[in-house]
Structure formats: structure tokens, C-alpha cells
Specification:
114 residues, mainly alpha, single chain, 6 helices
Length: 114
């Protein structure tokens, strides 16, 4: 029976409070930078003017801008790859049509060497 009392006090001791979270974040200022996925689930505070207050909106905007830049770079890579593929496809089609129009072995050899 005595163990049940201790269970309740352990829960109270281990419970997260705003103060504990604030203390942890103060002791680990790079926590959000190391865990950017958490920022997406946070509710941004309204803007405050004052000393010592972090502007979470600015932090979140910087994270989103980084993601946008990354997506823009990926899209550009896809576009460049598509253009290269289209160029290669055109060359292959031209070569196949030239081979199909060859009138014998001699013409086929000429098409392949050209």
C-alpha cells in the first residue's frame, strides 16, 4: 500500500510545467534549431516589443524561407533534368529514324559512324 503514495508524488515531480520547460529552453537555447520539426507544430505568439523576448514569428519565417529556398532549388533541378532528358530523347529518336531509313548494311554502318 505504501508504494501507491510514492507513485503519485513521482508523477507530480516528473510533470512538465511551464517553468520547467522555460528553464530547459533557457539552458538549451539551440533546442529549436536542432529540432526544427517542432517549430511547425507550435502556435506563434503575437509580436512583442521588449528586451529579452524572442520573436518566434521571425524564427518560424526564417525556417519556412529556408524550406522554400530548398524547394525552389529542387524544382530547378527537376526542370534542368527534364530539359536534358528531352534533348537526349530527341537525339535518340533522330538516330532511330536514321537507322530505320537505312537501305542495307552499308547505310546502317554509315548512320552508326556518323
Amino acid at each position: 500500500m505504501g508504494g501507491h503514495k510514492n507513485d503519485a508524488s513521482v508523477e507530480d515531480t516528473d510533470a512538465l510545467t511551464d517553468d520547467k520547460i522555460t528553464e530547459y529552453l533557457a539552458n538549451n537555447p539551440d533546442f529549436l534549431a536542432r529540432n526544427p520539426e517542432i517549430v511547425k507544430s507550435l502556435t506563434a505568439p503575437s509580436r512583442w516589443d521588449g528586451d529579452g523576448v524572442a520573436d518566434m514569428q521571425k524564427f518560424m519565417l526564417e525556417q519556412l524561407r529556408g524550406e522554400i529556398d530548398n524547394l525552389r532549388d529542387c524544382a530547378q533541378d527537376v526542370i534542368e533534368t527534364s530539359r536534358t532528358n528531352m534533348s537526349i530523347q530527341t537525339r535518340v529518336h533522330t538516330a532511330v529514324l536514321a537507322l530505320l531509313s537505312a537501305d542495307g548494311f552499308a547505310d546502317t554502318v554509315k548512320v552508326v559512324t556518323d
